[in-house]
Design brief:
Tscrpt_reg_AsnC/Lrp_C; 5 helices; disordered C terminus; alpha+beta; four-stranded antiparallel beta sheet; 4 strands; transcription
Amino acid sequence: MEEIDRRIVTLLAGDGRMSFTDLARETGLSVSAVHQRVRRLEKRGVVRGYAAIIDYDAIGLPLTAFVSIKPIDPAAPDDAPDRLAHLSAIEACHSVAGDESYILKVRVASPVALEDLLQQIRASANVSTRTTVVLSTPYEHRAAELAGHPGEPDGPDAAP
């Protein structure tokens, strides 16, 4: 990926509502050039969409937890994500290496709601759970450092 595209992606990751005019000013490109590059990044799947960042306390979901799950029967099919898809309190499902199979990020209204959700997770997917409750979140939704990769024209092994 070209350095200018990395800059555009970084800017959009910081503010998905940034206008083409502001992107052009930040990158030194024309508005039409930025527009073409953003559309190309979307078409390639680099930019997959734009989302609102929600204040979950304000909408009554102040409790965040990470729930690690592993199958009770290791020989059972690995279909936990499908079995849990109907539970809207699960914000994210990550397949992980280690003792657990998946780590779920969940948001609920209260400890009682978390307890109920854990029972639903166990019953729906036939898994055991290990839960970590979030006390506070100093930062979240940070844009990753978009450095070049080896073998790319502007990667670490590129000629000066």
